[in-house]
Amino acid sequence: VRIGIIGGTGGIGEGMALRMAPFHTVVIGSRETEKAQVCCKECEEILMQRGLSCSVIGKTNQETVDFAELVILAIPFKFLVSTLQELKGLEGKIVVSPVNPIEKTGTFFSYVPPPEGSAGLLAKKLLPADARLCVAFNNVAANRWRDLDDPLEYSVAVCGDDEAAKETVRQLIASVPHLKPLDAGPLAVAPLVESLTPLLLNIGRFSRMKDVGVRYL
Amino acid sequence: VRIGIIGGTGGIGEGMALRMAPFHTVVIGSRETEKAQVCCKECEEILMQRGLSCSVIGKTNQETVDFAELVILAIPFKFLVSTLQELKGLEGKIVVSPVNPIEKTGTFFSYVPPPEGSAGLLAKKLLPADARLCVAFNNVAANRWRDLDDPLEYSVAVCGDDEAAKETVRQLIASVPHLKPLDAGPLAVAPLVESLTPLLLNIGRFSRMKDVGVRYL
């Protein structure tokens, strides 16, 4: 599948591109084409140094949607509404939300979902009715994606209501070496997937660990 | 420390007793002394078959509180209020809540916390002001505790506001072979610790895994 990463010039978007580009055609989207193209060049250089050939193309966010069959919303929660209101043509496409509504209150991180109950359910409301939404990749830290020396031996929980879309997302996850996809159920469980991220951030902070990830066993 | 397990005849309570009794003095509490004593005998036999000597004593829940320095509330969420209203003498003691407010709605499990925000915060409200509450052990399945062939290679997130109590609980966790304690922050993060449990149940259900546990890395 052709992968499009909206907000692909951010840390997590670039990290995902690095991990997926050796195996898939990846388009990195940004508000500005030039920024996306600089990011692509960086990705290609990093991968070439490791002897990995790849295909990464830089485009605007809208061109990224137009090109891709599977669109990853690698954007902060605060940009979710405006981004989905701007983008056209998501009808029938697989859309993946790794978005986590998190706030830092005092010394710790909290899960602060919108009234819809989760970022996933908010995205559902804003997307075309036939967009095939999955929530996934919420719990893998940006730095881990980017650090190609990290074996990335994590589990990735996926939830959603479209079984075929979920299977495609699971295959995408399984195509990244060591990442293990797991089905967590319908889209209604998105709050549970998203709220694991502030727990990981808190464990990192209070147990002095960096970029904590998770494995289910 | 002297460990008291309230509701110790339930699956998770008995499992905890089995894992802790080789290293600590453990009292199993129940509404009826006889039930607790039958459970203790079972524990001792299981451990003796493995060549492990142990000390497990069966008492009522109230006697268990009176005896123990650290009290584990191994009870279902629905009994949390009535149990804490009945028990006396928890002043100054370390109290550990592994309680998860979970409901099954249709095919999946949801986190359904009380108005206080979490079982931990509800317990805080009901306990004496100087009880030293920690939330821990929420995410290890009862069957895993009980199956002594399971290496129990899991992480256990601990949260609470009393640093010394939290350290004692971490030491208790670390005394069980392979279990790894991690500090997740203040008691305010209890919703994040508790809501991981329905996620694990959903992953178990939808990914066909049994008694899913978690490791942070």
Structure description:
- Two copies of one chain form a homodimer.
- The first copy, chain A, is an alpha/beta fold and 217 residues long.
- In chain A, 38% of the residues lie in helices and 24% in strands.
- The A-B interface holds A 105, 107-111, 153-154, 157, 159, 182-186, 188-189, 191-193, 195-196, 198-200, 202-203, 205-207, 209, 212-217 and B 105, 107-111, 153-154, 157, 159, 182-186, 188-189, 191-193, 195-196, 198-200, 202-203, 205-207, 209, 212-217.
Q: What percent of residues of chain A adopt helix (DSSP H or I)?
A: 25-40%
Average pLDDT figure of chain A: 96
> How large is the share of residues in beta strands of chain A?
15-25%
Uncertain runs of chain A: none
- Helix tally of chain A equals 9
**Using DSSP, what is the number of strands of chain A?**
11
Instruction: Tell me the overall shape of chain A.
Output: globular
Major β-sheet annotation of chain A: 8 strands, mixed
Order of helices and strands of chain A: EHEHEHEHEEEHEHEHEHHE
| Most extensive interface between two protein chains, with residue counts | A-B, 37 and 37 residues
Report the C-alpha radius of gyration of chain A, rounded.
16 Å
Oligomer kind? homodimer
Strand order of the largest sheet of chain A: 3-2-1-4-5-8-9-10
Instruction: Look at the helices and sheets of chain A and give the structural class.
Output: alpha/beta
| Intertermini distance of chain A | 29 Å
